Amino acid sequence: MTSRTLRIVNEKGLHARASAKFVEVVEAHEARAKAGRGLIAGSMGPLGESYRPDLTPPVEVSAALYAEKARILAPHVDLILIETISSLGAPFAFTFTW
User: Fold this and answer.
1) Does the global pTM surpass 0.90?
2) Residue-wise pLDDT tens digits, 8-21
3) Rounded to an integer, what distance in angstroms lies between the CA atom of residue 98 and that of residue 33?
4) Concatenated DSSP letters of 8-47
5) Rounded-to-integer distance, Cα 62 and Cα 68, Å
6) Phi-psi bin for 53: left (phi > 0), alpha (psi -120 to 50), beta?
């Protein structure tokens, strides 16, 4: 077994928000199992400032970051929603993610 030490970052309450999201994912899977049907959606928002396209990373950088987020979400959701797009380059980054 390989052991890793991870640094916990709690910037802007990140740890608490991530824990809450994990609980939501578990509850969604339990609800789907109980209902016997349904889809679970994940969501990917902007990288950084949502209303400042001048502060978003270029497509060459953001595509890799969105791909990483998609790889993390994919095993837990049936589809991924893209929201709060503020730059014309962001849709291209999402496209290159797949």
Assistant:
1) no
2) 555 666 667 777 77
3) 28
4) ---GGGHHHHHHHHHHHHHHHHHHHHHHT----EEEE--S
5) 10
6) alpha
